[in-house]
Amino acid sequence: MSTTTAAEELAGLSATTLLRFATAGSVDDGKSTLVGRLLHDSKSVLADQLEAVEAVSRSRGAAEPDLALLTDGLRAEREQGITIDVAYRYFATPRRRFILADTPGHVQYTRNMVTGASTADLAVVLVDARNGVIEQTRRHAAVAALLRVPHVVLAVNKMDLVEYKESVFAAIAEEFTAYAGHLGVPEITAIPISALAGDNVVEPSANMDWYGGPTVLEHLETVPVSHDLTGCHARLPVQYVIRPQTAEHPDYRGYAGQIAAGTFRVGESVTVLPSGRTSKIAGIDLLGQPVDVAWTPQSVTLLLEDDIDISRGDLIVPTGDAPATSQDVEATVCHVADTPLTVGQRVLLKHTTRTVKAIVKEIPSRLTLDDLSQHPDPGQLVANDIGLVKVRTAEPLALDSYADSRRTGSFLLIDPADGTTLAAGMAGESFATAEDPKSLVDDEGWDF
Description:
By secondary structure, this protein is an alpha+beta fold. The protein has helices spanning 3-15, 31-41, 47-59, 75-80, 110-117, 135-146, 166-183, 216-222, and strands at residues 17-25, 87-92, 96-102, 122-128, 151-157, 188-192, 236-237, 240-242, 254-258, 263-265, 269-273, 277-286, 289-291, 293-295, 299-304, 315-318, 326-335, 341-342, 346-351, 354-368, 373-376, 380-381, 386-397, 410-414, 421-427. It has eight helices and 25 strands. Strands 7, 8, 9, 11, 12, 13, 15 and 16 form an eight-stranded antiparallel beta sheet that branches. It has a six-stranded mixed beta sheet with strand order 2-3-1-4-5-6, sandwiched between helices. Helix 5 (110-117) packs parallel to helix 6 (135-146) and helix 6 crosses helix 7 (166-183). The longest helix has 18 residues, at 166-183.
């Protein structure tokens, strides 16, 4: 390939849009095989990778390469034939660039789906055509809805094992669409596939002429996505305060961080939360150079006109668009730890760059996945539960609603004893609202 051609190809890739997507499904539904087929048939696999997969497949006595091995990277995964960790893959076609998160299907590792889907624009939920929609399918749909993933693809896999029957696909698609629709998933696309045989993954299937929709890759390449957060509420979580105190910069005081959303301009009036102090932006440094405007997701340093006490964890926002601060947080959480989350438990709450002490004051309800009903006052949440919690923090926090901002509306609950992540939380209303909060008093010194 000539230098000019390579440069043109690189420029073309830079001009294409980026889609972040996650795959999810129950054990043995074929997620890793689908991802492997997608990479293989889209010519996104290096020759040495394919040779390694072929060698391992031959050692197991397989006649054809096991494409699932392209994503199952851990030795434990290869030995057990399941996905344990979130496997990230990067690939591109002439139409779009992709970051893929292949998440575990086993119920024990549902917590990893929360990680993989938290930044996804699209989620591919696999269903075994022989088994239909099961509890883990409903859990994955609930997680996708809770994390506000805007697009969901239902991939009904292993159609070759049900003789490619349209009636089987239609029944599963109808059940899943109704369920996900009640959860508030905005867009659902159902595609019948056979990941093992390659039907409707990259190339249209000759075995399902009754299906006239897109293949998986075609849908991934054409689904509309937008990463333009410049029009959103402007937010800058402060990560670090820069004070060189050198002869060249004796009075320099800058507040560095990555803009979570929106746009900041020199001369704009801003408020620092939670203190509520106001000032104006005197300057913006980007990559060591002064600029007049900066926007998400740029990492910048803001300089203010006034000398204000600002530290890591503070939030800089436009004065006219500041979120309310509160010590009372009501949110829906996905519990991801092996130990339960209980009423009265002391935790740490991490929101953007800020970590504060907190107490779980109430667990009003737990979501029942079968019928989407609420189980009131469960007393605790165990691994993989989704429920509503009320938390009281030691210091005020400035949380947006998760419906408005996935970055500044989310948080983690952490075990203060060992740093284990207990739950991933989404502020504001989601599946339920609670009334008549109970007043709980902590008798161990954490009564805020």
